[in-house]
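Memo to structure team: turn this sequence into structure tokens by end of day. - J.P.
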Amino acid sequence: MNLRQRMLSAAAAVTAVTVLAGCGSGGDDAGQAAPGPSGSAPPAVVATTPEVADFVRNIGGPEVTVTQIIKPNVDPHDYEPTPADIKAIGEAKVVVKNGVGLEGWLDRTIEASGFQGSVVDSSQGVALREGGHEEGEEAGEEHAGEDHDPHIWHNPRNAKIMVTNIEKGLAAADATRAETYAKNLTAYSAELDKLDADNEAAYAELPAADRKLVTNHDAFGYYVDRYELEFVGSVIPSLDTSAELSAKQLTDLVAKIKATGTKAIFTESSLPPKSAEAIAQQAGVEVVGGEDALFGDSLGEPGTPEGTYLGAERHNTEVIVSALAG
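Reply from structure team:
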């Protein structure tokens, strides 16, 4: 059964569970938001990724009901939607996505759900990286594919563009709360500015010769560009997570780590560490993982500091600077 067939089958299953599920989007973030100034019902918002969902929570606050599709430490590149996802999307007023082709499953899921609301592409206006480390065109439908790096949130300046897009989308869908969304945007944008300044200050203390990064996969290109790091390579040689190193690529990466004096390989929370550990052993360098694993495609568990975008990005900078300085 192909993906489209699975989605259509799942859509049919939604009808069978609707009576049991009741009204409203039944995600783990669903709750009773306050009525608007005119007594209007709060908008039900579906957010695709942990990062986007956190942005929506910060801009919408208690004024919106948020259902997050992809849970922490789930790889977004290979995600397959569930009947509950289709149901939540079908009942939502707004769907917010990362964009840049990260959610390859979303358009077909929206079609299967019968969704009638608005879709907010948070990537609009972000200068995109190509497969390498060069900035490309501004995000748009004609560019939103696998030729561009979708991990745009790793630069806080991009995150500011993303939350601005989200604020506009929420205000357009729910004008009665527009003033609240605008105030929340101002407050959260200031926090993003502080994150960016703190990151910049941390790397200012690290000699340029030590700013060499090797990760599980190529998820940190925007971060590397923003803070002037040197990307040595990745265990998975792709922006996606489905590729694998060939024997020659593995040998070349080990040689490059040794030649550049790279100090560590950083694993990621949503990916298995075994390949990184094997390469680190061959290269004779430290492997950083476990509780210090970086948040590349995900955030931490809800209720932890790393369960928010700000906390996860602070964690990443603290771990990288500490390991490379050591």
